[in-house]
């Protein structure tokens, strides 16, 4: 079986005909956050839409489409459904789909998959991974150069190898600026429960933390809601939220006495859309290539939004960014 799979991969590596390029189709299976999660699922879908527009394709199973997972039980069903529709490649969005991709890719050896944010070591799977710790490091620098209380917080969704990277990078970034800053770390145990995010944020803000970085998907919407409510009650409070995966400025906007204010300091950027767009074009033109591909600060796979950062903070962040790209700073990808 392995030799047949390898032979199939080698055939694809030889290139794709003009007709095959014209008929090329891609799909994605979401995590439970869905395509409007204001996070990496949404970013992935926006990249797929951009790819469709670039190639004059309309959304559909013969061009580009998505399969919505409402619960984790939907992963296998959706991956099977996508494979049965003979798409050229099916992207699985999020590390939680890894076991399902492993199983489905073995069941459909002639179907190609893109595993986003994890690794599946099979010849019909490409693993697209991101140096989230590098972007999180810059978020830590942003928090450290902004806090007025010398207290910052981190809210994670579910502990694991992916969110560990966000925590480790954030802590390293804060400490690189000022080791005396207190950092409180809490996990919600969920990526889809804004009420828990709100509760954690309320406790943190009541303890004089004034900047919270969340890496918790829709759970983080509760962090934004709590910060906005507190600022609405007392406009003199300078409270901030650092968003994740997409520029979450829209989540931080509020109106006070007829004036617009935004409590989204900045957001880390995981360019899942760019990765899917780029990989799809390369595969369409050159054929499928399995294995791990890394997206980091150096190739704009991750980054940080300008947000409401001061010029001074932006200048400091840029300096650290260049040091990371140059290899002068090695950002940890797991908590100590």
TrEMBL record:
<comment type="similarity">
    <text>Belongs to the BMP lipoprotein family.</text>
</comment>
<protein>
    <submittedName>
        <fullName>BMP family ABC transporter substrate-binding protein</fullName>
    </submittedName>
</protein>
<dbReference type="InterPro" id="IPR050957">
    <property type="entry name" value="BMP_lipoprotein"/>
</dbReference>
<keyword id="KW-0449">Lipoprotein</keyword>
<dbReference type="GO" id="GO:0005886">
    <property type="term" value="C:plasma membrane"/>
</dbReference>
<dbReference type="InterPro" id="IPR003760">
    <property type="entry name" value="PnrA-like"/>
</dbReference>
<feature type="signal peptide">
    <location>
        <begin position="1"/>
        <end position="20"/>
    </location>
</feature>
<keyword id="KW-0732">Signal</keyword>
<dbReference type="Pfam" id="PF02608">
    <property type="entry name" value="Bmp"/>
</dbReference>
<keyword id="KW-0472">Membrane</keyword>
<feature type="domain" description="ABC transporter substrate-binding protein PnrA-like">
    <location>
        <begin position="27"/>
        <end position="333"/>
    </location>
</feature>
<dbReference type="InterPro" id="IPR028082">
    <property type="entry name" value="Peripla_BP_I"/>
</dbReference>
<keyword id="KW-1003">Cell membrane</keyword>
């Amino acid at each position: 079986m392995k030799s047949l799979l390898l032979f199939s991969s080698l055939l694809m590596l030889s290139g794709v005909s003009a007709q095959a390029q014209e008929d090329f189709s891609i799909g994605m299976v979401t995590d439970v956050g869905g395509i409007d999660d204001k996070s990496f699922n949404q970013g992935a879908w926006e990249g797929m839409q951009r790819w469709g527009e670039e190639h004059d394709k309309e959304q559909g199973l013969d061009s580009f489409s998505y399969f919505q997972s409402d619960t984790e039980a939907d992963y296998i069903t959706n991956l099977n459904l996508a494979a049965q529709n003979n798409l050229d490649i099916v992207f699985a969005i999020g590390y939680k789909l890894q076991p399902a991709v492993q199983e489905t890719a073995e069941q459909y050896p002639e179907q190609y998959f893109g595993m986003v944010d994890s690794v599946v070591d099979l010849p019909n799977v490409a693993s697209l991974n991101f140096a989230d710790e590098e972007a999180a490091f810059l978020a830590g620098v942003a928090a450290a150069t902004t806090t007025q209380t010398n207290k910052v917080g981190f809210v994670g969704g579910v502990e694991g190898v992916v969110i560990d990277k966000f925590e480790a990078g954030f802590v390293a970034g804060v400490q690189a600026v000022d080791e005396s800053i207190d950092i409180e770390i809490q996990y919600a145990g969920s990526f889809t429960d804004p009420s828990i995010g709100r509760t954690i944020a309320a406790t943190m803000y009541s303890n004089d933390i004034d900047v919270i970085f969340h890496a918790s998907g829709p759970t983080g919407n509760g962090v934004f809601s709590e910060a906005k409510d507190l600022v609405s009650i007392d406009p003199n409070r300078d409270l901030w939220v650092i968003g994740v995966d997409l520029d979450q400025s829209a989540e931080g906007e509020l109106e006070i006495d007829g004036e617009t204010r935004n409590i989204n300091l900045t957001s880390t950027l995981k360019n899942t859309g760019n990765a899917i767009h780029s990989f799809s074009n390369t595969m369409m033109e050159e054929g499928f290539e399995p294995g791990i591909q890394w997206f980091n600060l150096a190739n704009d796979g991750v980054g940080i939004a300008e947000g409401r950062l001061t010029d001074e903070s932006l200048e400091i962040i840029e300096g650290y960014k260049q040091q990371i790209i140059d290899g002068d700073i090695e950002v940890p990808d797991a908590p100590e």
